[in-house]
Write a structure and sequence with these properties.
Radius of gyration: 37 Å
Shape: elongated
Distance between the termini: 68 Å
Number of helices: 26
Strand order of the largest sheet: 2-3-8-5-7-6
């Protein structure tokens, strides 16, 4: 009951205060009218009489503020009144409001989007993994740590509370559902899930006994895969599936959204077979560990690297070539320059937002001329400087908040688009791109800070108005001071400097992409269809069975109309190959401490013909080159030039040294033209050795098909022939080689992003320059009229306006060009055959900016040419 009485009393008090305000306003209006009439009787004009009345009665407004304070009105009511006034002001100028909101929404939206991406990549890491920042990764350039090395580190290191090792493979899964599916399988050591702080949602984790040779095969399913394949049927737990034909029991289901350390459908134990326990293993394994409480990254790395050095000393033949390193999440998965690269993206969108702020500051300065009388009246009525600034800043913050609200939708759309692009580019790495509390805090923070930033200069300027000049001139010259013009020019010069930095950054990224795209791979990528298959070990356990399948598939594919040639290969062009130690005949024994290595690719006959390459000397592989025959190789031109300059390599011999048995000598039967391998940027031709697929058969291979018609037209026919041979064999693709390799063109993807940012910056900077010059023309209408009246031609006026408009551009270029060369050094790691200070890029970027700025000056300058002196002087 007491609460109701208090609420009723507050309501009555509020209405009483409103009534007192209305009475006070009526009294104030009456006093102003009386004072105005008195000044009219003294011979003043109506405007002068009104102005003098306002000046004399300025203390009344101050007394009104004091009257409110004595009544105990809370400050929040004054802020609410300012807010209502700000809303009315924005509604009275819908054109300005919508324009400002569009610029702010764009700037704030892309900032929030890039921060969301940066948050996911650099701060959040793997979804559902506890304390990602406490995980360290041990590898040799992303791969190649043997299980014995990992076991030694795990036994000696005291900095970790848990460690694990992992290996990604592809498998074929079959079950009672009746169809086969290629799945992503990750081999992990026991304790991996415990190390990352997760346990199965259903079932149980792997045990140490599951790693032992001869243990019953078991598997844990990814939640998404369980949902997609089995409809979240709990009965799958404890059932048996077949992975590459091997019966495997399902013992667990991981929580929804969890995937570690990459995209995985199924996890299986890393069984300690004889191959796994070899210390010279070169497969794609890496180790990781969770730091113990109180241990820092630096101390853990120092301890681990000391152990690694001891291992290298103990096993120089196998370990010194690996050079194991300890890295954090960003360094391991994204590269050593990930922080700088994503930071540069963040800075790029920050530049766009700064340009938007500079534009709005200029727009508000231009609007200030129209509001000078209004502000002068309020000052004359006793409003203090802080009250004026508070009102103007509240308007700016309200405007930026509306822009931030619209920017939130832009950010959501941008993040979704980025996530889809990244899934296509690198589907193996799963990150959490949701907009969490950290992003929301950032969005609110930049929305408020942006409003203060672009509203502060106009607020300071208007709070210092000369009341007499403002009331006398009505604002025609109140904001036309030289100080204001210098401030506007400074803001425009800053916009131009930021724009040239973004244009230069986008330019070097696009140039880098063009270098990659136009590079000679040694392959004709057009009309080339590719697909891959993993032959199950239960049905294709012997090399003869695999070769038989490849032969039968080739026989079925060749008669398809439009099919010109068919071949198989271990890897595609640009992909990383196996790198094996080698020995040249007559060159002496290899260096056992640091054995050099060669890239090795197993290929079928017609491989070079299918890719559009040529055999320059000797012959190609034949179908008769089988396992029982003399071991053969074809070398590429780069290897022949390096090892046998000026000689005919055909008939020379070399051997590859990673076989368990003594390596046989292989005879060179041909020299092929260079094809890019081990380099996704396509800039170098490594020395390569090609061996017959029939003499070195693996369960997985890429199918390559040269077509005489559009490759997409043959996809269905190829799948049909594969199913006809083996209905249970899943196939990746087929798709064109261009599409397959496109996912590795980072420069295209990020260059496109930087180009979008630069285009937005260029557009905003041009609009900003146009606004300033157009406002200057309107402000100087009388001056232009006088100049033309005393003999200035339209051409003279055009040149005057154009030169003064382009002057900020000159200062912007003088600052921006050196800054762009410094900023582009951050992008150096992502550039291919392009320097950060590439002169072509800087010239083109400058030309684009100059043309855009010239257009922004040309339109108002043309308008100034058409000023009628008579009309201009009459207006004044």
């Amino acid at each position: 009951m007491t609460t109701v009485r208090q609420a009723w009393a507050r309501l009555l008090s509020f209405f009483r205060k409103q009534e007192l305000d209305r009475e006070f306003d009526e009294e104030l209006a009456a006093h102003i009218e009386l004072a105005t009439e008195e000044h009219l009787r003294r011979g003043m004009t109506p405007a002068e009489a009104r102005r003098m009345a306002l000046v004399q009665l300025g203390g009344i407004e101050a007394s009104k503020e004091q009257h409110r304070d004595t009544r105990g009105m809370p400050s929040v009511e004054g802020i609410a009144q300012d807010l209502r006034y700000a809303v009315r002001g924005l509604r009275r100028n819908p054109g300005f409001t919508l324009t400002a909101m569009a610029m702010l929404a764009t700037g704030i939206g892309i900032n929030a989007a890039v921060f969301t991406v940066t948050n996911a990549v650099l701060f959040k890491g793997f979804p559902l993994v506890e304390r990602n920042d406490r995980l360290l990764y041990i590898s040799s350039n992303g791969c190649c740590i043997s299980y014995p090395d990992f076991d030694d580190i795990r036994a000696e290191a005291k900095s970790f509370q848990g460690m694990g090792i992992t290996h990604g493979i592809g498998e074929v899964l079959t079950d009672n559902n009746g169809f086969a599916e290629r799945v992503d399988v990750t081999e992990i050591s026991a304790g991996t899930f415990q190390t990352v702080g997760r346990r199965p949602l259903l079932g149980h984790d792997f045990a140490a006994a599951d790693e032992l040779t001869g243990a019953a095969p078991v598997a844990i399913l990814n939640y998404g895969f369980w949902d997609q394949r089995y409809g979240r049927d709990p009965s799958v737990l404890g059932s048996t599936v077949r992975l590459n034909g091997i019966p495997t029991a399902v013992i667990g289901i991981m929580p929804q959204g969890f995937s570690f350390p990459q995209k995985a459908d199924i996890w299986v134990p890393l069984v300690q077979t004889a191959t796994v326990m070899r210390r010279d293993a070169t497969d794609t394994w890496f180790a990781f560990g969770r730091l113990a409480d109180g241990v820092t990254f630096q101390s853990a790395r120092a301890e681990t690297e000391a152990i690694i050095r001891r291992i290298e000393t103990a096993y120089p033949v196998t370990d010194q070539r690996f050079h194991l390193v300890v890295q954090n999440f960003a360094q391991f998965f994204l590269g050593a320059n990930a922080t700088a690269f994503y930071g540069s993206m963040w800075a790029a969108v920050g530049f766009v937002l700064l340009i938007a702020c500079a534009n709005l500051a200029n727009l508000l300065l231009a609007r200030a001329m129209g509001r000078s009388r209004e502000i002068s009246v309020r000052i004359a009525l006793g409003a203090g400087r802080w009250r004026i600034m508070r009102q103007l800043l509240l308007e700016s913050v309200l405007l930026s908040s509306l822009g931030g609200l619209a920017g939130w939708w832009i950010a959501k759309w941008g993040v979704q688009t980025y996530q889809l692009a990244m899934v296509r580019k690198s589907s193996w790495l799963i990150l959490d791109y949701t907009m969490d509390h950290r992003v929301l805090t950032y969005l609110i923070g930049i929305s408020i800070a942006t409003g203060v930033l672009f509203g502060l200069a106009p607020a300071l300027r208007l709070s210092r108005l000369d009341v007499n000049a403002g009331l006398r001139d009505g604002g025609r010259s109140a904001t036309g001071s030289a100080r204001e013009r210098r401030l506007s020019d400074f803001l425009v010069a800053g916009e131009m400097a930021l724009a040239i930095v973004l244009l230069a950054g986008a330019g070097v990224m696009i140039r880098s992409f063009l270098k990659i795209h136009s590079a000679d791979m040694g392959v004709h990528t057009g009309d080339l269809l590719v697909g891959s298959m993993q032959l199950p070990r239960d049905r294709y356990s012997r090399p003869e069975q695999m070769i038989s399948f490849y032969d039968r598939l080739t026989t079925r594919l060749r008669p398809i109309p439009g099919m010109e040639s068919v071949a198989f290969a271990e890897v595609l062009p640009t992909y990383n190959t196996r790198r094996l130690p080698y020995q040249l005949e007559g060159a002496g024994p290899p260096n056992e401490r640091r054995r050099p290595r060669l890239g090795v690719v197993a290929v079928s006959p017609e491989y070079f013909q299918t890719l559009g390459a040529t055999v320059l000397a000797g012959r190609d592989f034949f179908d008769a080159d089988v396992v029982s025959d003399l071991p053969l190789v074809i070398v590429n031109q780069a290897l022949a030039t390096r090892f046998w300059p000026g000689e005919n390599p055909v008939g020379k011999r070399l051997r590859l040294l990673n076989d368990d048995a003594p390596a046989p000598w292989r005879t060179v039967i041909g020299v092929a033209s260079n094809i890019v391998q081990n380099d996704v940027t396509r800039q170098r031709f490594d020395p390569l050795v090609y061996v017959p697929l029939r003499q070195r058969t693996y369960g997985g291979a890429w199918l390559l098909m040269r077509t005489g018609i559009r490759p997409e037209a043959l996809k269905t026919a190829v799948r049909r022939e594969v199913r006809a041979l083996d209905p249970d064999l899943p196939m990746y693709g087929p798709l064109t080689l261009t599409d397959r390799l496109e996912g590795y063109w980072d420069s295209r993807f990020y260059g496109g992003l930087f180009l979008i940012f630069a285009a937005l910056a260029l557009l905003m900077a041009s609009i900003g320059l146009y606004t300033v010059v157009a406002h200057a023309v309107r402000r100087r209408t009388a001056e232009i009229g006088i100049r033309m009246a005393v003999g200035a031609t339209a051409r003279d006026v055009f040149g005057l306006v154009f030169r003064q408009g382009m002057l900020p551009l000159a200062f912007g270029l003088a600052i921006g060009l050196p800054a762009s060369m410094a900023v582009n050094r951050i992008l150096k790691a992502a550039l291919v055959q392009v320097s950060p200070g590439d002169p072509i890029t800087l010239v083109v970027a400058s030309a684009v900016l100059i043309l855009s700025a010239a257009l922004g000056c040309w339109i108002p300058a043309r308008r100034a040419m058409r000023v009628d002196p008579v009309v201009a002087l009459r207006y004044e």
